[in-house]
Amino acid sequence: MLRLNKLTKIYKTGDKALNAVDLEVPKGQVLALIGPSGAGKSTLIRCINRLVEPTSGAVVLGDVDLTRLGSRRLRRERRRMGMIFQEYALVERLTVMENVLSGRLGYVGLFRSVFRQFPQKDVDEAFRLLDRVGLAHMADKRADELSGGQRQRIGICRALIQNPALLLVDEPTASLDPKTSRQIMRLITELCLERELAAIVNIHDVALAQMFVQRIVGLERGGIVFDGPPSDLTEDVLTRIYGEEDWSETIQKLDVEEDAA
Amino acid sequence: MVVSTKNGLKVWQRRDRKYQLISWAVLLIGTAIFVWCWQEISRSTTWAFFWDAPRIAADIGSRAMPPRWEYIFTLWEPLWDTLNIATLGTILALMMAVPVAFAAARNTTPSAYFIRPVALLIIVSTRSINSLIWALLLVKIIGPGVMAGLIAIAIRSIGFCAKLLYEAIEEIDEKQVEAIEATGAGRWQIMVYGILPQIMPALAGISVFRWDINLRESTVLGLVGAGGIGLQLQGSLNTLAWPQVSLILLVILAAVLVSEWVSAKVRGAII
């Protein structure tokens, strides 16, 4: 469904953020991308929808090579990729409803969007999604009145109302407390299952990733150093990804949590 | 050095010796210049007039009292003109300042090498010339009257509004813009959904602030024939009609107080 082919990104400063990354994500698979800060996780995600222009290589979504598209075609293809951000990136001074409906901007003309005349079926879908994440009563609140967890739920609604085939999720839980983090991760994986969405989830919290996804990819200095199921994530592998450290705790903690669950 | 060792103790001073000497020298030179200026000014002052000033002021003051209250009926119209100059001038300025601000802000300019310098030039050039001087010029070009004042106020305000606005645009949270971009929104949609909501409070604050300033400025524009209450002021001054002058000053004071109150109210409502 999504295929990255020798994807490379070199920043103007000369930093090689991605080094010929090959990756294939089939339909409906949720994949966690782990790796130390600066490994290129954010760059990888942003190169897929070209918020960051890749230097070379191909990003093939379905059968379209995104790297070759002009701006109009790119905008059309972006509608198929929903994005969820670390600090939620909601437009703070707009209402919850406006934020959710902004996910439809790629489908709605300029005039209608300026005057907030979204088609009724979009509004229906927005209410359905808000209801699904349990925030239907908040539709009229301004985004900056919400708590972190609530904002991230709105961010999820905004991504899903695009009716995407793929979710790009950039550190969804980094600004949230442990409990909310789990709820958000659970919500994302559940929704992906319901809608058969593929997702790439950047995540710092290894234990959290192991808990919720079927496949983990380890990125280190712009290259893939691990690709496998969570159960293959041993101390050796973590050392390869993050460097020398006592990893026994991280993995043990996960076992305990799984037993409890 | 700022940190030095004396008798085995680490001594800390705010400045090292060199900067201490320099700062004393600068203070000395500054004092010398001040004293010299003082002498120059007192030498070129005609002291007879200066010592006479309180008597003259008291004389004018006694003639100006009481104000000629019935003159207020001729003032309503110029006062209305003044209000129009300030309000319409501000609106006109904003219509031009918003595109200039978007062209000048680093993160929204269509071209950093061609369009941005032009926008910055517009900002600097309109800002650097006082509205009284713009009015002097415009009275010559389009003739005396309200229109000249209105355009003078508008031109002078472009730079002010555009500068504050483009600074606000440069300070927006790029993440929110990125998020809108990622949905597949077009350039103008990104503007309306990602940028505009973020600069709305700044835009509202700037317009009210500038309107407040423009009301004060437009009261004097009449002095050069650009319409409004200043025209009456000039006429009264020229004919030594002091009771009228005092009434006009009172009216201007009242107008400024009202504008102050209105803008405080509006700003409070927005933020």
Structure overview:
The complex is a heterodimer of chains A (261) and B (271). The longest helix of chain A is centred in the last third of the chain and has 18 residues, at 178-195. In chain A, helix 6 (148-160) runs parallel beside helix 7 (178-195) and helix 8 packs parallel to helix 10 (248-260). The two termini of chain A are 32 Å apart. Chain A is built from ten helices and ten strands. With 261 residues, chain A is of the alpha/beta class. Helix content of chain A is 38%, strand content 22%. In chain A, a hairpin with a 2-residue loop joins strand 4 and strand 5 (64-65). A six-stranded mixed beta sheet of chain A has the order 6-7-8-3-9-10, with helices on both faces. Chain B is an all-alpha fold and 271 residues long. Chain B has two domains: 1-42; 75-270, MetI-like fold (Orthogonal Bundle), CATH 1.10.3720. Helices cover 78% and strands 3% of the residues of chain B. In chain B, helix 3 crosses helix 9, helix 8 (187-221) packs parallel to helix 9 (229-238) and helix 9 (229-238) runs antiparallel to helix 10. The longest helix of chain B is centred in the C-terminal third of the chain and has 35 residues, at 187-221.
Quick summary of this structure?
Chain A is an alpha/beta fold. Chain A is 38% helix and 22% strand.
